Each structure stands twice: as C-alpha cells, then as structure tokens.
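Forgive a beginner's question, but might I ask you for the amino acids of a protein and the tokens describing how it folds?
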Amino acid sequence: MVTHALGSYPVYVHGGALAGLPDLVRRLLPRRRVALIADARIEELYRTGRLGSTPAEWETLTFEPGEQSKTRASWAGLTDALMTRGFGRDSAIIALGGGVTGDLAGFVAATYMRGIPYLQVPTTVLAMLDAAVGGKTGVDTPFGKNLVGAFHPPSAVVADPQTLATLPDREYRAGLAEAVKHGLIADEDYFSWMEANAAALVSRQTPALTRLIRRSVEIKGAVVADDERESGKRAILNAGHTVAHALEQATDYRLPHGEAVALGLIVECRIAEAKGIAQTGLTRRVTGLFTSLGLPVRLDTPLEPVKLLDGMTRDKKNREGNIHFALVVEPGEMHRVGGWTTAVPVDLIRAALASIG
C-alpha cells in the first residue's frame, strides 16, 4: 500500500495481474463509465489480445506514442474527446502504458470535471517501478519537462511483469536505471543485490524482475508517504534527474528517459565526489553497475554544456538562482545539510559533464 493525504492505494505486482483488471475495476470503481487511455502501439497490443482484453463497455482513447505527445495539446485533445462522448463525473480512467501515458492520462484524470478516479496500469519497467507510483501527473512544455501538472493519486496500480516480454531491449534496459537510483538513495543492500544479479535482470528472469519492481515500489512509496507534495525529502527521488531532464530536452527527447537518468546519476555522483560529499569511488561503482545492465555511460554525440546548463536552470529544485542537486553520499544515504538539495557552482557542473562526453 502507498499512503497519501487522503488515504492509500494498493499496488499489485504479480504475473497475470493484467488478466484480472476488469474484475478489479468493477470492484474498486463500481458503476463508473470507463475510458481507457493508451498510446496507439499499446492499444493495438491490447485490442489484439496480446496484453489481454477489454470489456465491451470500456471506451478507448489513443494518442501517438512517444514523449513528444506528452503536451498540453494532447491533454486538451483527450479531455475534449471525453466531453464530446459525454463522460461525466461518474467516469473513471485507466492509464495503460508507459510513463508518458501515466503522466498524461493521470493529468487528464486530475483535471477532468475537477478530478475523477483512475488506475495506473504500467506496461514498462520504468513505469512499474517509478512513474506509476506517487501520484504525480503532468505534461511537458517547451521550457522543460513536467512543468505543468498536478498531484492526483491513483485508485490502484496494477503491474504485471509478464507484459514486459513485449518491450524492445533498449526500452527494457532503460527502465532499470530508476531501480539503480532507488538503491542509491535508500537501500545499499538493494544496490548490492542489483550488482550481484545484473545478469538475471538483463535476461528478464521473472523472479529477479518481480523482486526488483516490488522493492523499488516499496522505496518510492515510503518516500512519497513522507513528503507527498514534494516540499522536502521527496527531492531525493530526483537524484540524477537535474542532468537527465536537461539531456532529454537538449536531444529533443530522442534520448530515452532511463538512459538520461543513468548518465545523470554518473554526472551527479561525480559532482558529489568533487564537492567532498560522496565517498571516493562512488562514481566508479555506479558506472560499473550501469555497464553490467547494458546502459550507456557516455553520450554517443557530445552536447554543448551551455545548452545543458540552460535546461538545468529551469529545474523545479532550484532556489535563488542556483542550480540544485539531490546528491548521494554513498549507496543508501543522501546528503542533507540545510535541506535535501545542494547548490552547485556552474564550473563544477561543467567539469562533471565532461565525464560523459
């Protein structure tokens, strides 16, 4: 269970969970008109039975796959479609897909008729262990990622590891970066377990993958419960993300989020070492784990530091004109002196960025 200000919601993680989705919807959201929101690729998999089947009474709304669809225009299109079809306050939404779908459909649910309930049904590693948990919804803008959104906890999260069999290899591996982040910010034993079981995770062995998702959900759920509205400790969930969001924006989102997080964590661990916050060798250990998981540790094409720094200046953690980072001391421990984030001078950021090309 994940707790929040108004109560709690369950997270179901087991093989075959998707097959029980219709019964779960009837139990948790009785007598509600249901709209399933998915990108066109996932909708086809679901419609053709490769991810299960939907009750005839559910209505489906789709959008084009990819981060480029997580916009205010897509939000407007989906909400207008609900209005055109006559959905009222007695409706509910199912967000079926990856993190883009969860954020976008969740934002629709948060704002439609001033808020209707929804279920998160993630179908990627990244969404299962991170994006679907925590109640944050939103869309991107030309100024940066997730700058328009709302906190709107789901009624439940349904994560079926069997759906990950359809994921392309690059997308699958990218999701593992967020699990590494969870180990870094909260649980050294979990981080060490990933180091010892990297081969099992890369080969998608179900027992290892199920354990990974469950432990990451536990970690994120505990952090969210402590700081639902992102006023303090929840900032640690953004470890690696100050750099990652800038990398995504600078590449027009061609760089997958998980790969950006891996590179961001390497840069930010190097910053922590340079400032004397982290133990010597932290960056080497993190880089080694990402290499074992098949994630990039350098950019294929170097990016202009000025472009990346410009993206970082719009990060939500920043204060008083300074770029702030959530920095790791050692696996399982975050730096906290005067708050959960630390201001870092631009010259130090530039030097750390050089380490990824």
